[in-house]
Amino acid sequence: MKVKWGISLLFIISILTFLTYWNYNNRTYDWDMPGYLGSMFTTEFPDSPEKVRELTFSSIKKEASADQYNNLIGVKPWAPTRQYFAKNTQSFTEQLPYFQIKIGYVLVITLFCKLGLSPPMSVLFTGLISYFISGLLLFYTIKILFPEKYILAALLTAGIMLMPTMTYMSGESTPDMFIFLFLLIFVIGLIKSWSKWSIFLLLLVMIFIRPDYITFALTYLGAIFLYSYFAEKKMEIILIVQGIVMLSIYASIMKLYNYPGWTDLFYDSFIYRRPIISSQPAHVSLDIYLQIIYTKIIAFKKVTLAVSIMTGLIFWISKDTWIRMIAALFFVNVYIKFFFFPQSGDLRLFFPFIFPLFIMILLALSQKYNHIKSSKIV
Description:
By secondary structure, the chain is mostly helical.
């Protein structure tokens, strides 16, 4: 059996190598890249915003195709805001807090840059290497759940890594593939029954990569607290302490980088992208918010159908309260993310919460047919 698993692993490594190279050849240079490069250069030249802007766009121009670079800087008449970002230092600098708060991601791309990669390639390489490692971890996860199904593990892993959303995230200049990697590790931690403190540290890493994952971290701690209280008759005070620590770190990050706030993010994303943030206050009334939510949730119907079916399958296959609770946790977080940031047409934002539901289906099937017990955090 070890030889067969070894052959399957070699097959997956070959497939992942090919797909990673293919994703590299289909990489994109979009607006997120200047934000993260600007954040990186700001740490090196904190008192030279003009130099930061020039270094950011000149480094991208050296590598991006003419079409991608022109799209990035908004040469089209209908993209005047991007033109401001590229030409106006104040405009560009005021956008950076949206990106600087993702400290963990900025540190990683800085590390790759120090190791010799070009600034744009440092951003892209983070997504590409995260894609490759995620494929290996996915193969490992399936091996845990189905220890005798080496062909299933290889084919399922290859099929998942070929999904358009996965390949798209791999070649994007965003932390989405990077955070997906850590959510996959989180799911493995649940399956392998890691300690509360191990999971806590993993959640902290996620918050440093994407502070908006504070909602996921807190809902997870809340779910575990309620499960321990009602199912095991234990009051886990340590979970409350962990939640307070996470909130304190989150608030410190927001304050350190003068983050504009949710209202500004929502306004700039869904109402009007201000060329210069300080020149115009952001105002989001309840009526406007509900109108946007109503429009976006209609376009969200495919995701709603998919997560509803997957959650329903989990509840149908498994009677295990723990598995059902974790499935409900991911289901709820899809909609928490949506109501805070209803970009329904951008699946990459929700995929890290959607995909673990598929893993929960596999866990439920494994528990039912392979007699693998679900584990609780200890």
